[in-house]
Amino acid sequence: MASPSSPASPACDRELAGRAQDYFEGLEYDKALETLETLSKARANDPKVAHNLAVARFYAGRDKSTESFFEVAVAAKRRMEGKDGESDTSNDDFDDEAECAVISYNMAVVHYQRRQFESALTILERVFKIVEAVEEVVAQRICLLLLDLYLANRMPDKAGFVLEYLAKTLVSNGNVKQKEQTNDGGDDGDNNQKSASVSDKELLKFYLHQYRARIHIMSRSMKASKREIKSALNIRNQNVTALFLKSNYEYVRRNYRKAVKLLNSCPKTNAYVSGQSLAVLYFNNLGCVHFKMGKYAMAGLYFRKAIEANEREAGRMPQVAGNEQKKLLGTGVSDRLHELVYNQGLVLLHLKKPREAHKCFKTGLLFSAQHSHAWMRLAECCIQDHWQQRTGNNQPDNFTLAKLFGKAQNRKFILKQAFQNTQMTGPLSLSLAITYLNNALHLLARKTEPESKPDIKKPAAKAAAASTSATSAAATATSPMQAAEQGVLRCHALANMAYAYLGTGNLHEALRYAQMLLAEASCPGPIRFLAHVYTAEAYIRLRRFADAMQHLSPQNVGDLSSKGPAASEDAAGEAENLPTEVPPFTAESARNTLLLNLAAAYCIKDDCDQAGACLAQVKQLPAESHQTRQSALLSVFVSLRQGKHDAALEIIQRHQRPVDSGGAF
Fold this sequence. Notes:
With about 675 residues, the chain is mainly alpha-helical.
């Protein structure tokens, strides 16, 4: 709550204000509300009284709407700044910002609860510039909330700057005050106050170690993160947050079994951790670990349990048992539904269930529409559904059996094209995938384009420019690690776009996106290989064989081990926001793929001699693989075109397989 207002207020008003503050700090919200209502009658135009009255109503349960509270806070702030009825969205005058620090902090909390992180950042960054003029307790809370916002937006550099200020300024001020109290030589009545001060100092140190560890994990500085986690556990060895943080550290280092062990060792006496449901966090983290272990069915089970726990708690959330007086502000941050359904959708996508995964991703789109990876996942669902329809429930053969006549040596087969049905049914399509991919590419372009942003000023006497710049409300700034991830994500989006346009028959657009992909310097090796294949297919269908054959040269295989820009030395984990993994290519299999496609191009061109020469270079094909069947079919075609019927018959007999009762070839 804000401090009592004007110093010229009567003694009775000051007494009522002090009494209301005592009631509020003593958790007697109803009495505080009654006292403030009495005070508001005498000071109807005091903005601080109006703000405190709104806070008391919220905590007393009289008005749980964040909308009405936010309106009162905005009106009170404008009256304090003398701007009632005016717009101050771009005003850079911070003379009155210190007086409005508490109101600004509460407004940022409301934005945070609504998951409007950019709006909350805009407010707190203005206050942080003059944080030295703010009361120490309020300044500490402002810094802690600003840290949470920077970490939520994956901005570890800026979070590190705020953390260092918090450690140097507030902790050092606490040490000075403690020394002054020691020199004054207080009596026994001050012992409780001193012990409380020491306890608060230890708690603040614990928070500092915790935030440093989170920043180092996000920056993939694993050695520094391990040191901070150890320091935090030395202060509170059975703290749930610290144990979860250590489990996350092991998860990033791919020590999955140890991560599970740490999660199971967390004390479960309290059902809530910092306002979050422990069951939701526990099951979600177990699901993430099992997903990384490749146990997708088990991961899906844990995510379903997390969603069920979230449905019982968030939004639909009952009051915490035994803490009726500590009412939680809204449920926006506590409700993790959009994150849980995204994880569940990712599991379903790996389990080859694209339509169920699409429903999950659409459910979480309300809060993740500004993230490019969410649109990428939706496009992957459409592409996977299209592929499943084309291949007929993942049937690998290029041809299926239509009819069978005769017996023994007189048996005859009638084959039909497996992909002759081009009418794809269902809610998902490649056209819809193109729409999703356009959204993803647009968001990636917004995040990577350079912007001129004002610098954050250090709240020090010299006011030197900070090393990082402020973020605008339009786009989220990213760390260097994230910039590299965004480059890889863009390559995946371009590859999917080229595939989708090839599937819809728009060859010129497919060619354009494939060439854009080849022009990307940071393109991973497997994606670059696919770009050559897509470009060649577009050229072949455009009857431009000379251009196609340049891309089908075995020299275009390149380095298939590259996964994009290199990370730091102790980086041990891949980002979960990247698309699903590209099927692994070996240099030999990639070379064989290009040779087979080159042979097919020569067959279309009716140059069977060159096609045969390409097939002769194909080596080490795995038995019963798609490449083996493709090579056999091309060899039969070339032999028949060259009039070598005996050779074609020998190839057929060598690769023939028994026909089951269902008629599969």
